[in-house]
Amino acid sequence: MATGKNIRTYFNGTWHDGDLPVMRAADHGSWLGSSVFDGARFVNGLIPDLDLHCERVNQSARALMITPTVDTNTMVEIVKEGLRAYAPGAAVYIRPMYWAIHGDASAIMPAPDATGFAICLEEIPMAPDTASVTLGRTRFRRPVLEDAVVNAKAGCLYPNNARMLADVRARGFGNALVADALGNVAESATANVFMVRDGVVQTPVANGTFLAGITRARHIANLRADGVEVQECVLGFQDFAEADEVFLSGNMNKVTAVTGFEDISYQTGPMTKRVRELYWDWAASS
Questions:
Q1: For residues 196 and 245, is the Cβ–Cβ distance under 8 A?
Q2: What's the confidence (pLDDT) of residue 2?
Q3: How far apart (Å, rounded) are the C-alpha atoms in residues 205 and 210?
Q4: What is the DSSP code (8-state) at residue 83?
Q5: Could you tell me how far CA 92 lies from the centroid of its own chain?
Q6: Residues with Cβ within 8 Å of residue 165, at least 6 apart in sequence
Q7: What's phi and psi for 156, nearest 5 deg?
Q8: Of 66, 250, 265, 278, which is the most exposed, with the fewest CB atoms less than 10 Å away?
Q9: Residue range 91-144, pLDDT digits in tens
């Protein structure tokens, strides 16, 4: 699924130019969806939180009963080696991934004896700071751990995200504001969500129905260090209807302003701009 250009692939111990085929038709990951990935960014010579993203792909593998084979530090060094082929000013999406190759006698359970591993690098531009999105409600919800592997960044979770996007795009919105199983707001279809009201930043509490992102945690830490009150709490759709500002937090573009939710309009406010500035100041200093 190439969405960018200038792709490089790490597979079988070496870097290759191009979008290299890495899965076979009978691999467990191909036909039973036992694949996990993570995403980091190389922007202006910076690789924020690369170690945490590499660590999380190993955690995701274990959650999906796949045996991870590359330790975090080694993975970081492999990524850095691959990035040397890109210009310092390039914007690169970094995607390490695992998949099960064999199944057990039932074919359903991943077998621990063989794990596929690859890293895909591809140039994908960062969205401009002026980029924004509108949100709509969807009937599709985030599952709970008893129903799906919500404790992993697993490929098998993403068809549900696609249903959410198709649902709201049919009504003219760019993304979906999504509920958990109890009807409380969880996140958007593609990223974590924050709202601002009376100078206080709020975000849905991580209740196990969605992946509380690495970038989300970084924003919370940066804002608190800057003296901003941040609350992780239970939020409903009415809270977002009454918000002063709303923004999305994800690795792909770090901060995206939300300019509307259903028939409610927002401005790109000062907190949205502040959290973006704090993030890149932190990235440059670290």
A1: yes
A2: 60
A3: 10
A4: H
A5: 15
A6: 175, 176, 189, 190
A7: -70, -10
A8: 265
A9: 999 999 999 999 998 999 999 889 999 999 999 999 999 999 999 999 999 999
**pTM (two decimals):** 0.95
DSSP assignment of 170-194: TTT-SEEEEE-TTSSEEEESSSEEE
Q: How far apart are CA 27 and CA 34, in angstroms?
A: 9
Q: How far is CA 39 from CA 49, 134, 261, in A?
A: 10, 24, 27
Q: Is 104 helix (H, G, I), strand (E, B) or coil?
A: coil
pLDDT at 77: 98
The terminus-to-terminus CA distance of the chain in angstroms comes to: 32
CA 72 – CA 55 distance, rounded (Å): 5
CB count within 10 Å of CB 41 equals 23
pLDDT on residue 97: 98
Average pLDDT over residues 197-206: 97
Q: How far apart are CA 259 and CA 246, in angstroms?
A: 8
